[in-house]
Structure formats: structure tokens, C-alpha cells
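Case study 2.
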Amino acid sequence: MRRYEGLVLQYQFEGNFVMLRSRLLHLCLLLSLSLYASGCPVVVAGAAAGGAAGAAVSTNKGQEEHHGALTYVGTVLADIVYVPAKVLFAGAGAVTSGAAYLLTMGDESVSSNIWNTSVNGDYVLTPAMIEGTEPINFTGP
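Prediction:
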């Protein structure tokens, strides 16, 4: 009798493992579809291009404006925290936008609203933003 109980317990353990593996596979598939539909690679490329453009705009404006040394130090220190936070926020918004697109069966108004709010905005802080002469737009319109 004990040998039979051991086989049943072993079968239940293997069955639970297979079910858990199946659930993980479904979760990975759903996340992959959300990531694919969200355009997250576009966000990463846009963030890199936006950072480069922001730096170019900042250097072009630097010829017209003069800022103190502490403003530049503050800008660099703030960007160390701000840029990764903005990229993570935009990436999460892109994935959420893709999931919303899938869950609403292709309703672009919902997903585009999430996309625009999370992906648009400033990716790099400039000295003028640190001084308060320009607004910081973390989110889009």
C-alpha cells in the first residue's frame, strides 16, 4: 500500500510541475506578445536618439546661455537618476500600451493615449531645466 501512495505522490508532483511549466510558458508568451505589440524596441531607439538630440540641443544652447558650474554638476547628478527612470517609465508604458491594444482588441484610442503619455516627454534634463527657466515634461500631453 505504501508503494502505491508513493507513486501517486510522485505523479502529483510531476503533474504540478508540468502545470507550472505550462503556466510559465503562457505568461512568457503573453509578455512577448505585449512587448512585440508595444513597439518597445522603438522606444529604446527613440530614447537613445532623444538623449543624443537633447545633448546636442543642450550644447547648441550652451553657446547662447551661460550657466554656473554648480548648475552643470546638478544637471549631471539629476540625469543619473532621471534618465533611467524616464526610460523605465517609457518602457513600462510601451508594454502597457501593447497589452491594452491586445486586450481591447485593437482599440487604438486607448493604447495611443497610454503610449503618448508615457513615451513622449523629456528624456534628458538640461541646465535651463535645473535652473527653472524651462519646464520639465516627464510625461507627454
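The first helix runs from residue 2 to 38.
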